[in-house]
Amino acid sequence: MDSAKRFFGIYALIAMMAFASPALAQMGQGGMGHEMMGGMGKMSQCEKKKSGAGHACRTRWKDTLTNEQRAKIDKMHLALKKTMSVLKARLELKEVELKNLALDDSPDMNAINKKIDEMMAVKTEMKKHKYAHMVEMRAALTPEQRASFDMGVLGKDSHEKGHGCCMKGMEK
What we know:
mainly alpha, Four Helix Bundle (Hemerythrin (Met), subunit A), elongated
């Protein structure tokens, strides 16, 4: 009897997943393109707040990009992601090395401090790439788009905080 209940439970779970999958797929349409830039294709602040209160209904810079701008920005994002992925891997490796140094039977504080300095150098390099990317992004925008972008960088719009592109999670 127990196995019949388990079978029914598993069957019910599979059925729920089968019905939920099309709805979930429709909600998250798109792939790794501009959706990473902060929700192109998602419901905008303006759509969420039909009341028009505050600055939530202003045009966002991402919504006004030309095809040429999108192509240029996609290339910028790809270059940044490639660079950052290598730096993140280097940082993670140094983190493991640091842990091993600290867990040594007779830890060498000079080696530990040197490893911390190496990690901080990688973090500095990551931050420099991030801000160089931000400057490059601004250069590709019109003055009107730049104003919206700048508001996002300053955190005035929760959807665009950190300028809303693929830089999220790269600040470690």
